[in-house]
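Input.
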Amino acid sequence: MIRIALLSPIHNSLYSRLVAHLVSRESGMQLVCAVVRTPWDLKRIRSEMARDGVRLLKKVQQKLVLGDRAYPQADDETLPAFAKRVGLIEKNLGEVCQSHAIPCLTVTDHNDPRALELLKNLNPDVIAFTGGGLLRKELLSIPRLGVLNCHSGLLPLYRGMDVVEWPMVEGKLQEIGVGLTLHFMDAGVDTGPILLQRRVEIRRGDTITALRRRMEPMMVEVMLEGLRGLRDQTLTPKTQKAEDGRQYFVMHPRIKACAEKRLKQFEEKLP
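Output.
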């Protein structure tokens, strides 16, 4: 039996809900608690505004206002379609936890002393991180195995932000491609040991938005695959070397437009 705690960025995160739902149904896994960040924190809003600028407004609209309705209803490769296939009916993480009698704590920061106390008392083997800001060393050191994060880029080459787009700008789609990396978190930015990776197929007609949407259900699958591997002791983490990659930052809209153009050029050469 592997004991798992979940960290979530917001209560209605569909990614978080799906991980919690599937872990609760999985043999040999026990979800011991969920810790959720509230979005209504002035310090957090200022920090994310400084990082994302006007993109934050679009994120708020998609995540908090529209929620599941932000996805195309006819697309069967989105998170809502995945949720329907696996029978997730709860509308927020609190409801998922209530359905399975699991403690759910809401904090302004995952490093909050109340969160640390809860996690230390429950002593999980691993923490599944589904978003919500930086984690300090004290929290990272609590689980016996570590804290798992599914990164939307291929490590160690692409650490940091907008790592779906940067390989496009750099002309590396043929050589490297795009994909997901499940890794243990450490004090650095996406520098922890790698557990597994999955490359994502680029199809004719793909846009960056469509590609990212198709990657989201894969993130759930990769997280569950990693947790199964830890439970069954079939996966061995691989240490990253700092010099094998670099950290990327938020992409300027003009560069993102260039990434979209490079993606189209790549698709034109596909068979």
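Residues 167 and 173 are 6 Å apart (CA to CA).
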